[in-house]
Specification:
Layout lengths: L23 H19 L10 H38 L23 E15 L4 E15 L5 E7 L5 E6 L7 E2 L6 E9 L6 E8 L3 H25 L1
Antiparallel strand pairs: 1-2, 1-7, 2-3, 3-4, 5-6, 6-7
GO molecular function, one term: GTPase activator activity
InterPro entries: PH-like_dom_sf, Ran_bind_dom, RanBP1-like, RanBP1_RanBD
Pfam families: Ran_BP1
Length: about 240
């Protein structure tokens, strides 16, 4: 109808404002943001995540406390070591030995009242009647010892190192030295009362020297002791 009055259009609200009403700077900012997001999405990435300041602060606190504890423990350990060292230096206690090892202990061998008339290194053997063979008694110095009071001479031989007696008997007149199996450096004789084992016992003994010269020197000293003892034993009879 021509006569009807045209109603005016309602005024547009602020929400319905077209995009062209936005300022040009804001539009440019939004466009740049959209382009940046599109680039990250094209290469499989998303928006860059910002690190959380709270987590970083917590890690710093932990590392700082651990470092402080380590320094504290180190300081305490150093102080403790110094204290222990000081205690060791202070505890300087001196104890006197109960037994002085430098003191000599005299051992009696029953040879103190005897004079050594002959000494020579040799090896001694004993004939074993059960096995019918010679057995070694020991290696050492064979000696002829003369008693200072009664004048009697006995033969004594001790083993090296242990000094255990392996021959001990008087050199009586009825003993006879014989060459051992034709050797010029070994002698054999019978002892009626050898006491090297404690009780008197009859033994067949053999002695061997380094050479014939030593063997002859022993024979001479042995025969001389026999002659001296013969006179002494005959007086007792």
């Amino acid at each position: 109808m021509a006569d009807e009055e045209k109603k005016p259009d309602p005024a547009p609200t602020e929400e319905a404002k077209p995009e062209e009403d936005k300022p040009a700077t804001e539009k440019a900012k939004e466009t740049a943001t959209d382009v940046k997001d599109n680039v990250f999405s094209m290469f499989g990435g998303g928006a860059k995540k910002e690190s959380k300041p709270e987590e970083n602060d917590e890690e710093n606190d932990r590392s700082g406390s651990a470092k402080a504890q380590a320094e504290k423990a180190k300081a305490e350990g150093g102080e403790g070591g110094d204290e222990e060292k000081a205690e060791e230096e202070e505890a300087d206690v001196h104890f006197e030995p109960v037994v002085h090892l430098t003191e000599k202990v005299e051992t009696k061998t029953n040879e103190e009242a005897e004079e050594q008339m002959f000494k020579m290194r040799a090896k001694l053997f004993k004939f074993d009647r059960e096995s019918r063979e010679w057995k070694e008694r020991g290696t050492g110095d064979v000696r002829l010892l003369k008693h200072k009071e009664n004048g009697k001479t006995r033969l004594v031989m001790r083993r090296d190192k242990t000094l255990k007696v392996c021959a001990n008997h008087y050199v009586v007149p009825d003993m006879k030295l014989s060459p051992n199996v034709g050797s010029d450096r070994s002698w054999v004789w019978n002892a009626a009362a050898d006491v090297s084992e404690g009780e008197p016992e009859a033994q067949t003994l053999a002695i061997r020297f380094a050479n014939s010269e030593n063997a002859n020197l022993f024979k001479e000293a042995f025969i001389k002791a026999q002659q001296e003892n013969e006179a002494l034993f005959s007086k007792e009879e």
